[in-house]
Specification:
Layout: E1 86-92, E2 100-105, E3 111-116, E4 120-125, E5 132-136, E6 142-147, E7 153-158, E8 162-167, E9 173-177, E10 179-180, E11 189-190, E12 196-202, E13 207-212, E14 215-224, E15 233-243, E16 248-252, E17 261-266, E18 271-275, E19 280-285, E20 295-298, E21 314-318, E22 324-328, E23 333-338, E24 349-350, E25 356-360, E26 365-370, E27 378-383, E28 387-392, E29 398-403, E30 407-412
Antiparallel strand pairs: 1-30, 2-3, 3-4, 4-5, 6-7, 7-8, 8-9, 10-11, 12-13, 13-14, 14-15, 16-17, 17-18, 18-19, 20-21, 21-22, 22-23, 24-25, 25-26, 26-27, 28-29, 29-30
């Protein structure tokens, strides 16, 4: 019998959970406590009043400031057929024609973070892309980029065994996360021994989640701006290390709402869902693919599209030379499989409305599948360059495609 689990938080936090922090009490200094008198003074010892009445002669009136309510974005995601199929714009993000390895939209789709193979990243201001912010500091190709909830910070991981947090407005480095090795003297922070997998902001930016070999690393992260400096500085502290049975090859989590579950792809071709509330594995799906999954994704949702709570229980996984599969975490069963086998590790994407699935193909085309249909046939093809990654906008029916020539192409529904 498969144990039932939900990505949305439904159970209360345990007393020993990492999310439950004790309430801090301010100590009272002896001699400074205030004592209440039992009887009210009669007034015999006080001086008599010298002035009985003082008229108000000033005509100045205090102006009450009316707080304006924040403006709400009137845009609503369309409910009609909104499949991206028309090319809108092309942006060159690399002068060296470096392949695009990772793409990520901000929450309001105002910015796009790009991870390149030339050891750098770029933050593009949309829709023109004229004002770009470079992210320079890695010593290897970037493998993953992710946004914070308020789109102020970007976290990147690279093949040089590093994970860094950046300021999205200036491109300055905020935090360079190190590994606290218990074998060294005083548990010093050293470089990671092997590649880092999928750095994510987690639990609405309260934590940073990272995978290293067979370990899930959870860091508490705080960003502050010193008074005498314009540079933003960040502090972090490792609070939990969870070990799984096999090496982690893919990692995904939800950050737009509170969820204690994390989805992992393991080197034994299985999928694992880890519960940080109970600090144990909640679900294991053995033999999910013919090879180890190189990408897993959850439905994080968007404030522009109303979703039912059941939508967040879908996860997607893919591996080389195998189908792209959708899973239901409540039953642990594969509900749909899309026949698109690639010999290279490409990154598919689920649309914000959870209607379409885009899968990069080796025939220089993006294959669009309809998730709602009874069959798993290709709905349409978008002919483009040799591509590696795709991502849907969380606000508009728009698809961003990253090619091996350092070009990002945008497709709209009209």
């Amino acid at each position: 019998m498969v144990q039932k689990c939900l990505l949305t938080a439904t159970t209360p936090l345990l007393n020993l959970s990492q999310w439950k922090s004790p309430v801090e009490t301010i100590p009272v200094i002896k001699g400074t406590e205030r004592r209440k008198s039992k009887a009210k003074s009669s007034g015999y010892t006080s001086k008599p009043r010298q002035q009985m009445f003082k008229p108000v002669t000033s005509t100045k009136t205090k102006k009450t400031e009316v707080k304006k309510a924040p403006k709400k974005d009137p845009y609503v995601y369309p409910n009609t057929e909104c499949r991206p199929k028309f090319e809108k714009n092309k942006l060159s993000v690399s002068d060296r024609l470096s392949p695009v390895h990772a793409l990520a939209y901000s929450r309001d789709s105002d910015m796009l973070a790009v991870g390149l193979a030339d050891y750098s990243g770029v933050v593009l201001r949309l829709p023109s892309g004229s004002k770009s912010v470079p992210l320079v500091g890695h010593k290897g190709p970037l493998t993953c980029v992710r946004w914070s909830t308020l789109a102020q910070h970007v976290i990147t991981t690279a093949a040089d065994r590093s994970c860094k947090v950046w300021d999205a407005n200036s491109g300055s480095l905020i935090t360079d996360i190190k590994y606290r090795d218990g074998n060294t003297k005083n548990c010093e922070k050293v470089e990671f021994k092997k590649d880092t997998i999928g750095g994510h902001f987690y639990y609405i930016d309260k934590f940073i989640l990272l995978a290293h070999t067979n370990e899930l690393l959870l860091f508490k992260h705080h960003v502050e701006k010193p008074k005498n400096s314009k540079r933003v500085a960040g502090r972090y502290q490792g609070i939990c290390v969870s070990s799984l049975s096999h090496n982690i090859t893919a990692l995904s989590c939800c950050n737009s709402f509170y969820s204690t579950l994390v989805v992992c792809g393991l080197s034994d071709k299985s999928l694992s869902i880890y519960d940080y509330n109970k600090e144990e594995e909640a679900l294991r799906i053995p033999d999910a693919h013919s090879r180890a999954p190189h990408h897993v994704a959850t439905v994080d949702g968007s404030k522009y599209v109303p979703h039912s709570p059941d939508t967040h229980n879908l996860i997607m996984s893919c591996s080389v030379m195998d189908d792209v599969k959708l899973w239901d975490v409540r039953s642990g069963q594969c509900i749909k499989s899309f026949n698109k086998q690639n010999r290279v590790a490409t990154i598919p994407s689920i649309s914000t409305c959870v209607r379409y699935l885009s899968v990069p193909g080796e025939d220089h085309a993006v294959h669009m599948f309809d998730i709602r249909g009874s069959n798993s046939n290709v709905v349409s093809k978008i002919q483009t360059d040799n591509i590696l990654t795709t991502v849907f906008s969380p606000k508009y029916p728009q698809l961003a495609v990253g090619s091996t020539g350092g070009v990002v192409t945008f497709y709209n529904d009209r």
